[in-house]
Amino acid sequence: MWRTSVKWCGREDSNFHGIAPTATSTLRVYQFRHDRKILYNVTVRGNTKCRPEYQARASTGKHGKMTENQDIEWKISDFPVSYPDALAFMEARVDEIHKANAPETIWLLEHPALYTAGTSAEPSELLDGNRFPVFQTGRGGRYTYHGPGQRIAYVMLDLKKRNNDVRAFVHGLEDWVIRTLATFNVIGEVRGDRVGIWVRRGAPDNPKSREDKIAAIGVRVRRWVTFHGLAINLDPDLEHFSGIVPCGIEEHGVTSLWDMGITATTPELDSALMATFKEVF
Q1: Residues 174, 3 contacting (CB under 8 angstroms)
Q2: Which phi and psi (to 5°) does residue 56 adopt?
Q3: CA 123 vs CA 31, 71, 126, 139, 159: distances in Å
Q4: pLDDT (tens digit, 9 = 90+) per residue, 177-225?
Q5: What CA–CA distance (Å, rounded) separates 154 from 55?
Q6: Measured by CB atoms within 10 angstroms of the end CB, which terminus of the chain is less buried, N or C?
Q7: 127-172, pLDDT tens digit by residue?
Q8: Which CA distances in Å does 169 have to 123, 142, 156, 240?
Q9: Please, what is the average pLDDT of the chain?
Q10: pTM (2 decimals)?
Q11: Where are the alpha helices (DSSP H) in the chain?
């Protein structure tokens, strides 16, 4: 049974709920070749250093099989990346993955403060359109905030290698976030009537208890290659969410790891994301 209901329209370019970085950005690239030693490439303003650092293993997860010939490239940007640059990179990489000219890619990054509008966004849900730049995007979902302190994972995977199963992919993103949060002793949950990952605040029998959103999911699929992905609130300015109705949900709030008293760092969150990815995909 799927945890979320995803409408599959049967088109090659479909939306679902659920260019390199700028010149001032630092980009780290990890090339994972399963069952082989790989090089850890660190590119900082044009200077590249390589050393044997990581060894990844082939694994079979619930949401797809990684074979020993499969490459996953991890890109990690240490400074905010503009949204147009990120979108341009994803568009180009999706095309190259489809043509088998580039490896599947996971990109961990953050954006400067901005709002994005998914394909289901309602104009009335943009409460303050002058506060931050607003970008129309082809992903599924509604309005979302991105900004410093929020870790984004853009996921570019070839679903032809994973049984062409979009629902399993979205389910896998949910599981990935939940497992990542669990490494910090945070219980993340999904809800059938709303997208994203949620945490309970207070005891269930407490009339003041509530549920807050800690991670958002919004993806797009083109020619069976995914892009966009998920965003986990590490330590963003939560007041910035007040300029929109996040994901069209008014009756619940938003939270972050730091808001819950978990003072994790960005490298710690990145490490958790990289470790739990192979458990799921």
Answers
A1: yes
A2: -105, 155
A3: 41, 41, 6, 16, 33
A4: 999 999 999 999 999 888 899 999 877 778 778 899 999 999 999 999 9
A5: 22
A6: N
A7: 998 999 999 888 878 889 999 999 999 999 999 999 999 999 999 9
A8: 29, 20, 11, 30
A9: 78
A10: 0.76
A11: 83-98, 166-182, 266-280
Residue 255 · residue 213 · CB < 8 Å = yes
Strand partners, 158: 225
Residue tagged active-site, from 247, 257, 273, 274: 247
The reply to whether 9 belongs to the active site is no
What are the residues facing 213 on neighbouring strands? 198, 254
Q: 16 pairs with which residues across the strands?
A: 219
Residue in 21, 26, 13 with CA at minimum distance from that of residue 86: 21
Averaged pLDDT, 10-15: 39
Share in percent of the chain as helix, strand, coil (round to 5): 25, 35, 40
What does the angle CA 79 – CA 265 – CA 73 come to, to the nearest 5 degrees? 55
Closest Cα to residue 116, out of 86, 130, 136, 89? 136
